[in-house]
Amino acid sequence: MEHFLAISDLSSDEVQDLLDLAIKLKKEYFKKGNKPLFEGKVLGMIFQKPSLRTRVSFDMAMRHMGGDALYLSPAEIGLGKRESIADVARVLSGYVHGLMARVFEHEHVLELAKWSDVPVVNGLSDYNHPCQGMADALTIQEKFGKKKGLNVAFVGDGNNVAVSLMHVSAKLGWNFTLASPEGYDLNPKAIEVAKKIAEKTGRGGVTPPLLRFIRDPHEAVKGAHVIYTDTWTSMGQEEETARRGKVFPPYQVNAQLVSEADKDVIVMHCLPAHRNHELTDEVADGPHSVIFPQAHNRLHAQKAILARLFGVA
Ligand code: CP
Ligand code: NVA
To answer: Ligand 1, atom 1: nearest CA belongs to which residue?
Structure first.
């Protein structure tokens, strides 16, 4: 693995391998601490948008494993503005051992990877959020094991987080349903990619995972083992907040909706949550919610990603 830009770039075996390594590193961390496999290594972290989880979990992943991380704020870098992305990538490649970038346009993280001599990790773009997708899959497997055929329902905006969840679901043989309002569908290119993944996953006598794109949240959660939601307005869409606030209320994940799913359903959210908008307090803090273990799993999933990229595990 040269870079980590999209879950769709990995084979199903590579996805499972990262999840297995994440579990191993998580156990090791809680037992006696991780080995200093990242000693002497520094991760440069480029942020064009705010972050709590991504910033802190990458920083801590590096420190727990003997390395260090350097935060580069939007004001400092001016990616593509103060300096071209190609030049930023080539300069930073001589200073740090890996780059993590949170960008607006997906093309920008691809451009960084094109010019970088060190591994590049996508820490969220307008297209996808693959580190989140890996932590989500880790959380789902911790609850349900490596079972195929789970029903994953994403309720809300067909956004970057939904893309990575759809792709990891298709890779691992889980059925994926999106219930979104008209006009807030998933990126058609991402759907095409998911269909190809599902077809491949379904070879060799395995039941191919189903992909459904519907409007009705109640239909989506019938038999669901996972209900997932995210903000109605992603970073960069702030001027659409009022319009979206009128369209999305029927897609709120509340106690009624959760009661319509499988009895063992888990409720997930990548966070930050806009409580009592896309997710009620009652559900966020209720017995089905796994939102905090899910957030904590970012740390363990990313240790595995970095270890494979650095070639140290
Ligand atoms: N889920 C997630 O990526 O959170 P941050 O935006 O706080 O990094
Ligand atoms: N869809 C959200 C995810 C935040 C982690 C956004 O892009 O703002």
So the answer is: 270
